[in-house]
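Page 47, continued from p. 46.
Same chain as before, 248 aa.
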Amino acid sequence: MATPQLGTLFGDAGRRTPVALGLTGLVLLGAILTLGSQQLMVSNFGFNGSLLPKFWTAVTYPLVNDLGALGLVFLPLWLLSIGGSVERDHSTARFGMILAVLIVVSLLPFVIFQQRLYGILIPNSALTVIWATRQPEATVMIFGLIPVKAKWIGWFGVASVLVTYGAGNLPLGGLALISCLLAYLYASNRLPIRYGQLRTFAGNAKPTKAQKQKEDAYLNDVFLREQERAERERLRKLFEGSLEDDKK
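Result:
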């Protein structure tokens, strides 16, 4: 899985990632419209505690920005980066399915507690957990300056959900993490549907020979990419070690 670097994302994340790019555009547009007409966006697209009569808000609530500049700039940028990275590990249709599930599951605690929900923060954090679980030791250069390991970025996503929604209602904040938990279980292959292998066979039919060959080729490609990433990391550490030795 590619390691994103904030500040160099837009040229890379748009390749072969139409779902991530499209959703980022919608989230950005929604954030701008929210600034211009907050009442209109909140009443028509935000989830306001009940699915009736506006049932479509179950999937449109991410378009309403209630986090100011954070929702206008940082979250769309991060969605494009993380979402693009995860999408490249799946087909476009499969990633779209994953994203739809995360958006709906993220809403469930707010349906139970009849609380309002706006913004992309929770689904975005769940995607971050998927990405961080797959490559916890990868180093991301934030804006090309600050090195941070992926696992800490994943934990930051979890903490941001808990703090944002649990500050005044701890049970709600805890349940709001359900999509992050689901994301972790999926990315760590603890679910029947394994990472990158979302297949839809009719009934209990076994995969055909061609399907098995395609799956084997995919798994081999993933394995080779992981080996390449590990080798790059090893060489980087050797290089850094040699620099430290030269300084002594």
